[in-house]
Design a protein that fits this description.
The protein is an all-alpha fold. The chain has four helices and no strands. α2 packs antiparallel against α3. The radius of gyration is 16 Å and the shape is globular.
Length: 97
């Protein structure tokens, strides 16, 4: 039953993220690059304590290849997503996800 609560909270927070991103992009002078950087940066203080408890496992060369390719794709898609939110309505942009 706990999974249902987590699923509903995830849906709520993801929708709030889109609404606040649209509000930030439309009302202020901040651009999509700043907002795309801010989303992962604000999650970092919550994720670093978890690293202290779990530790760092052994990393191979395939990890670094996956990290580089995954992070490159993530940055490009996040910037494009923020740009789409900025220039279009949320009711048009978000359902395409």
């Amino acid at each position: 039953m706990l999974w249902l609560i987590f699923a509903l909270l995830t849906a709520l927070f993801e929708s709030l993220k889109d609404v606040f991103s649209k509000k930030c992009l439309s009302e202020s002078e901040s651009d999509e690059y700043v907002l795309a950087w801010a989303l992962p940066a604000f999650a970092l203080p919550f994720l670093l304590p978890a690293l202290l408890f779990t530790g760092i496992p052994a990393l191979g060369t395939r990890f670094w290849l996956a990290l580089f390719s995954g992070s490159t794709l993530y940055v490009v898609t996040l910037i494009m997503y923020m740009r789409a939110i900025k220039i279009s309505e949320l009711s048009i942009t978000v359902p395409m996800l």
